[in-house]
Write a structure and sequence with these properties.
Lipocalin; 2 domains; alpha+beta; 36% helix; 221 residues; eight-stranded antiparallel β-barrel; 8 strands; rod-shaped
Length: 221
């Protein structure tokens, strides 16, 4: 377009000289080459901006993808602290004084007691032997005393103590006529409101033998 304008200007000015015409043509060619270079430069710049924009978009997309797992990852919840462990506290014990008094009040009195041999290794006894006794149970200064009157013994004496709800008795004596030392141990419990149950073990030291009895008793008063 600028070339046509120059030619038109040349015609209007009446430029008939070939030299002047050649100069105008040279100027027009330079101007055209310059415009082409300018257009090429603009095109290269536009292409470069497009390429930079595309790379920038990819970088942002990659950054988003890389950040997504971190941003969407579930935050770990700390595990709850373990409950305190250990043995359960022992229950409060029952009043021993009260239990002892109740057992003492039950056992103290007069009892009709029967015994049956359940086992023996002594030659002078046999299983099934039975006998009866009367026990007079009393307490003095915390000590249990049992006076025994029966068909096999006269005024034998047991000593003992109350342990929990049990009466534990012991007795040791020497029979000069038989030349025999015997140790008696008995454990007595409550059988209902007015009964006794338990066992008695007699050990004969010289004979190195032992006899066991089953005990049953009922309160006389």
């Amino acid at each position: 377009m600028k070339l046509r304008i120059l030619l038109t200007v040349a015609v209007l000015l009446g430029c008939n000289s070939k030299e002047q015409e050649q100069q105008l043509q040279d100027i027009a060619l330079k101007q055209e080459r310059l415009e082409k270079e300018i257009e090429a430069t603009k095109s290269e710049n536009q292409q470069l901006r497009k390429q930079q924009g595309s790379e920038s978009g990819r970088n942002e997309g990659e950054g988003f993808v890389a950040r997504t797992p971190a941003s969407n990852a579930a935050t770990p919840i700390p595990a709850p602290a373990p409950a305190a462990t250990g043995p359960a506290p022992a229950p409060a014990p029952a009043s021993q004084g009260s239990s002892h008094r109740e057992a003492r009040d039950f056992f103290v009195g007069q009892w009709d007691v029967s015994m049956e041999c359940t086992s023996t290794s002594c030659s002078w006894n046999r299983v099934g032997n039975e006998f009866t006794e009367t026990w007079y149970i009393s307490e003095a200064n915390g000590q249990i005393n049992v006076r025994v009157v029966g068909n096999t013994v006269t005024n034998s004496q047991y000593e003992g103590e109350i342990v929990g709800d049990r009466l534990r008795l012991r007795h040791r004596r020497y029979d000069a006529k038989k030349g025999r030392t015997t140790t008696v141990r008995a454990t007595i419990g409550q059988d209902g409101a007015s009964g006794l149950w338990g066992n008695r073990v007699i050990t004969a030291e010289e004979d190195n033998c032992q006899t066991e009895y089953r005990i049953a008793g009922s309160r006389r008063f």
